[in-house]
Each structure stands twice: as structure tokens, then as C-alpha cells.
Amino acid sequence: MHPDREETVGNGEAEEMDEGLKEDTSLGDIPLYRPRFSGMVRQKAYIFDGKGKYYNKDWDFAEPKENEFCWYHVELPKINQKLPLFAQCLIDILCPPLKLQDILSLVSNGPFCSHVDGALVFRVNSSGPPTSNYTFRLAARVTENSVITVSLGRVPRLGFSPMSESLLSQIPAVETCSIGGTPSHHGGDGNEGSGIVIREHVLEFLLTMNHSEEADNPVPESVSNLVVHIIDTHLDHLQDITTKFEMELDSVELELDKGGFALKKQMLDDRRFPKMHLNLQRLLQVIAHGEQVFPRVKEKCSSKKWFSSEDINSLEELIGRLRRLKENVGFISNRVTAIQAGLDSWQAEQINKKLYYLSFLSIIFLPLSIITGVFGMNVGGVPWTEQKNPEVKDGFRNVMFVCVGVLVLVLLCFLFPALYSRIAAWRRTIALKRSWSLNRKSFLKRTLPVKERDSYIRL
């Protein structure tokens, strides 16, 4: 169908609404929708000369010169909003030159890799609350001379910065809090020379990084280098989250080893390990999306003339790295399951102890309930119930003696398990002897010599 004809075909109610707006409202009075968090959306645009240099660029989507390519990146805010609102933000930012079909392919959830309007579009967007650290969304639209990417929040190491601004290139002093609460500095002479002091929590964050900073990123010289860089930083982000999760799990295991009843009960009440297991499942979902998408990206890019063979090999290495990361996350998930199983067994043990005390308390009153039940029956001939007979006047005392005797016997079985085990072993020995004697008699009957009778053997 021709595009001009598509515009004429529509709903009659929509046309009447448009006519009503034209007649009743002027153009300046029509309320245009603007998302309330449009100012929180970050936009970055770069242009690369193909020789190892890059420059900041205006957000104009202008065609670059020969041997140059552009990169436009959008960072959606990590706030609790519905997916259509994110799509409306992208419509305001990317439309035009992109169409609604292109924007929907970038913002939708789930794995995707295909050609949309002549461009290669792939995404690894996971469903989940946007504020969660385990919800990842990264989509890219790749053409021969431009790349457009959309991410949820900031992706570490995705950008570029001068090497002189890198924190890792300095020798700072580490600031820690002493026992009195006053900050102190250890190591280096950063206060005297550069004056750079690194906080302890910043150092702890840097320990979770398995890569260098943005200042150490090589500047892409082609679009294929840029695509590999985007996928590489995405895997670095997943690796950072996995490492941080593993460190948190190590600290939790240490707390469990040192903690007591209150700490374990608090962890069970807070459902800490089920939440950790849920976060791991979200992380595994993102890794599974990458396993579906990135091999297809490599397959589709291998047929492109502008995608170099070296970058194809780099994509193959990244896919293998993603599979190893999935195995590591599986090991961590097994650890969480084992710790949760240990807590469940501890909780079952606590319940069994309480039930043991409750059953012990019920045993104390068990003889009294039995005897009151027996002597409370409305039948004749029950002993010690004829209170007028002087021979059985001490019936109540005798009943108490019976209760005490039964109670002592039960307590002996509970307090001295060895006695109960000896009695049980004695009973088993008697049963075995009886069984052995019966088997021996049967065996002797079968092995006695038979007597021939009239040249026949009696069976």
C-alpha cells in the first residue's frame, strides 16, 4: 500500500476529533505532552574521524563526512515509570529522523536482533523494576556510518575521557575512619603532592571492577570497533554486578558463621536469600538474552562489508566470555541455594526443639490423663473405686503411685537414651536368635540325608 493512501485510511471518530480540535481550539492552545522526567534523560553525541580521535557533536543527526561516523547515546533514568513513558521520551528525542517502528524496537523488552528499515537493531532489554540494579536495558541501531544506543541508567566504561583525568593514574591516599571516628590517611603522600584522597567505599567499589576506567578505552576507528566496544562494556557491567554480588555473598557467609540465633532469625524474616536468588534469576535472564542476541549479531555482521573480520573474532570471544559468566552465575546461585537450605534446616531444628519441649510437657500429664480416663468410666468392677470399703480406702494414693511410676519410666526413656537403646538392642537380639533358630531347624530339615525307597528318592 502506498504511504499517501495509508494516511487517508483511518477511523472516522479520529477524523471527527481532529476536526473538533481545529474548530474549537487554536494551535497554540493544543496541550503537547512532555514527560515529567525529560530533563533527567542524558544525551551524548560523538563524531569519530576514523583515525583514533573523537569530538563532541551536536544532537542534530547530520550525515557525517567520508571516513567519519557518529554515535548517539541516550540514558533513560532509573525511576519507577511504565514502559510507554520511556517510549514517549525516545519519541521526543529521536523522532525524527527515526520512525515509530525504530523506537519501539529499541525500547521494547526481551531479546531482539533483526534488520529494521535497513539498519541492524539488537537489544537485550530485561523486564523488571527500572530502579533495580539487576534490570538491564541496552539497545543499539547500527548503520554504516552511525550508531544509536539506548541504555537504562549509566553503563560503566561506555564513554571516553582523557587519560590525565583518570583516578587510577594517580597515587592517592586512602581515607579510613579510625577507632575514635576521625578520618585518617594511609599510604602514599597524596596530601602533600597531588592532594587526592580516595575514600574507603570508593576503593571498595573499584575492587569490584574487572577492567580499567573509561580513560583507558581505545577510541574506535570504525563502526565495527564501536559495536564491539558497546557489547564489551555491557559484559563488563554484568561482570561487575556478578563480582559485587559474590563479595556480598562472602560477607553474608562470614556473618552467618559468626552470628547466632538473632542474626539467622533476622535473615529469615527479611527473606534475604530468596531476594538474592530472585536477583540472580534476573541476571541469568539478561545473560540468556545475550546468548540469543550476540551470536545473531555476529552472523548478521559477518555479511557486512564495513564490518572487519578482526571484530568478528572479537565478537566470538565476547560470546565465549558470556557463556563463562553464565556458568559463574550458576555456581553463585547454587551457593545461595545451599545457604538457604542450611537456614531452612536450622529453622526446622528450632521447631523440632520446641516440639520436643511441648511433647515432654504433654508426657508429664499423660499418665494422669490415662488414669483419670480409666477410672472415670461409668462401669462396675473398677478397682480402688469403692471408697466406703475400708480395704481400699487408700485408692487415691495408689493412683498417684501408678502415675509416678509411669512418669518415671517415660522419663528414664527420654533422659537416658542409652537405657532405651539397650532395651531395644536386647529385643532385637532375642528376635534375631528366634529367627536364627527357626532358620537353623529349616536348614537341618533340608540337608538331612534322604532314605532311598524302592530305588526312588523321596522329594
Describe it.
With 459 residues, this protein is α+β, with helices and mostly antiparallel strands. Among the domains are: 29-160 and 217-347, CorA soluble domain-like (Beta Polymerase, domain 2, 2-Layer Sandwich), CATH 3.30.460.20; 390-435, no CATH class. It is built from 11 helices and 10 strands. The strands form 2 sheets. It has a 7-stranded mixed beta sheet with strand order 2-1-3-7-6-5-4, sandwiched between helices. Strands 9-8-10 form a 3-stranded mixed beta sheet. Helix 8 runs antiparallel to helix 9 (309-375). It starts with a helix and ends in a 12-residue tail after the last helix.
The termini sit apart by 98 Å
Please bin the fraction of helical residues: 40-55%
Major β-sheet annotation: 7 strands, mixed
The CATH class assignment of the domain at 29-160 and 217-347 is Alpha Beta
Shape: elongated
SSE series = HHEEEHHEEEEEEEHHHHHHH
Q: Can you give the mean pLDDT? A: 75
Proportion in β-strands: 5-15%
The class by helix and strand makeup works out as: alpha+beta
Q: If classified by CATH, what would the architecture of the domain at 29-160 and 217-347 be? A: 2-Layer Sandwich
In total, how many beta strands? 10
Helical segment count: 11
Strand order of the largest sheet: 2-1-3-7-6-5-4
The CATH topology label of the domain at 29-160 and 217-347 is: Beta Polymerase, domain 2
Classified in CATH, the superfamily of the domain at 29-160 and 217-347 is CorA soluble domain-like
Rg result: 40 Å
Sequence stretches where pLDDT stays below 50 over 5 or more residues: 1-34, 186-194
Subcellular location: Membrane
Keywords: Membrane, Transmembrane, Transmembrane helix
InterPro entries: CorA_cytoplasmic_dom, CorA_TM1_TM2, MgTranspt_CorA/ZnTranspt_ZntB
Main location: membrane
